[in-house]
From TrEMBL:
PANTHER family assigned: GLYCEROPHOSPHODIESTER PHOSPHODIESTERASE, GLYCEROPHOSPHORYL DIESTER PHOSPHODIESTERASE
Ranges for domain GP-PDE: 3-251
Name the UniProt record assigns to this protein: GP-PDE domain-containing protein
Species, as recorded: Aplanochytrium stocchinoi
Signal peptide start-end: none
Taxonomy of the source species: Eukaryota, Sar, Stramenopiles, Bigyra, Labyrinthulomycetes
Pfam families in the record: GDPD
Domain of life (superkingdom): Eukaryota
PROSITE patterns: GP_PDE (PS51704)
Length: 301
């Protein structure tokens, strides 16, 4: 089985990421799926941008959620990539869907993988969903009758469960925090269509188990030939990459008969890092419990 080629943030080697140019570039490459990131503007419009701020991709600074759509549209997200892209705008989800539904533009019937962003770290939890983001995304998708061309992914299961209720026809993929792979057997109980893993954490046994439960496995973000071949050998269903052309060649040239999966030192390093991350998360949670207990005692006093 050949894995699906997923263009991370569109074709972003030549084009500015998460833009109409990047989506159009990926469509011209003939990829199977195009991944984008969405969040809210200040006036509740679903916009396509990865970072929580506009600092990295524009000449402005500030949180995406602090600008209205009109204000975001005034910002140039192309010039930092190359002067030839000067004037490129931050697109809305609706604008990207319009492109995906254009049969002349999307001749290969590629799908759109929409990642729902979230807020990192609050006093009460490790991450917090952006209120009503999933509802508005589904509304935009249904407004275009675009369910057939989209998949939604997120690290936040709450989003995905809500989407299941809002529209069962939309496939939902769980992005898996690396430390959750330490509890892979319980992870597989999640009622989602696919588990999308950081590629270092993928194993043959997990892929096989997922398949036995009619689940798919995607991996992210794979940009070296060595790691592409490793993931192909596992039989993953999709590979998210910034290098779709390289991945296409790796798939075409892959020989399962002669390939030998080696456990590289980088993988060993990552295993130790994964354990360290798990310990850090446990310490954080214990710290939070201590703070909550202290606040409770202060209230009682």
């Amino acid at each position: 089985m050949k894995p699906l080629i997923v263009a991370h943030r569109g074709e972003n080697v030549i084009n500015p990421e998460n833009t109409i140019s990047a989506v159009r570039g990926a469509l011209r490459y003939g990829v199977d799926i195009i991944e984008i990131d969405v969040q809210f503007s200040a006036d509740g419009q679903v916009v396509v941008i990865h970072d929580t701020t506009v600092d990295r991709t524009t000449h402005h600074s500030g949180k995406v959620s602090s600008f209205t759509l009109d204000e975001l549209k005034q910002m140039d997200v192309g010039e930092k990539k190359h002067t030839s892209f000067k004037g490129e705008q931050i697109p809305t989800l609706d604008e990207v869907l319009e492109l995906m539904l254009d049969e002349e533009e999307n001749k290969n019937k590629a799908k759109l993988l929409i990642e729902l962003k979230f807020h990192w770290f609050s006093w009460s939890r490790l991450f917090t969903p952006i209120k009503d983001l999933e509802k508005e995304v589904v509304k935009v998708v249904q407004g275009r009758n675009a369910q057939r061309v989209i998949i939604i992914q997120s690290f936040v299961e709450e989003y995905l469960f809500n989407i299941r209720k809002l529209d069962p026809n939309i496939p939902v993929h769980l992005l898996v925090f690396p430390w959750r792979m330490l509890f892979a057997s319980s992870l597989l109980q999640s009622p989602v269509d696919s588990f999308n893993l950081l590629h270092y954490t993928a194993t043959q046994s997990f892929v096989d188990l997922a398949k036995s439960q009619n689940k798919t496995v995607y991996v992210w973000t794979v940009d070296s030939k060595e790691h592409m071949e490793r993931c192909i050998s596992f039989g993953v269903h999709g590979i998210i990459t910034n290098r779709p052309k390289m991945l296409q060649k790796a798939i075409e040239n892959f020989d399962s008969g002669s390939y030998h999966t080696a456990y590289h030192s980088s993988d060993l390093w990552f295993t130790y890092s994964l354990l360290a991350a798990a310990v850090a998360i446990i310490c954080y949670l214990l710290f939070r419990l201590d703070l909550l207990a202290l606040k409770s005692k202060q209230k009682q006093a």
